[in-house]
Task: structure prediction
Amino acid sequence: MSSLLLPTVYLGGCIAAMSAFSYVYRRATSMTSFEAWFPINEQKEEYIALLNCEPAVPEFHLRAALLRRAMEAVRRLVQVQQEKPALQQLLKTGSIGEDLWREFSAAEQEITAELQEIAMEANSFKENWGQTIFSTAAQMLEHEKQKQMQTDMKIMLETEANRKKLEDEREAKESKENEIKEQEKRLREAKRAEEELLKMEEQEKKASKKK
Result:
């Protein structure tokens, strides 16, 4: 079992790596130097807006918003870590320019600063929360990922079930139509045989009258 599993895992890893490289190459070659690597961080903007609300919002709202901000920071960090090796390879081969690499490096530094700022904010709510907020955020991201995978799997199964249902209905319809055609064919053959029999009997009657 393990001898079959290892090549499968290796192949899956190779496919994932090639897919990531392809994605980064298309992304990098389509970007211009003035484009930000990531879109506006809406979770960060939301947290800052809540923090500056008048009157002040309850602390649990702020903590929840900070956790969502941490989740986005972890998501971006993972993306940067995944894209960096491919970009380094593209830079070595001259497929991308130094300006794009600087853009990526700036995004990387921005994420590092964001992580530090989130940790400081977390510690302001609860001592040492800054040491655990990112692990909590990573677990929540994984939970969301698993939930999305389950949703996608459910949709896929429902789609396959609908396809199978339509295929079964089509086959049943074709079978019914073929059965009707076969019955009609047998009726025509029976009628033709009956006509032939009547014709033969008529010929025999005529022959007997001549005698």
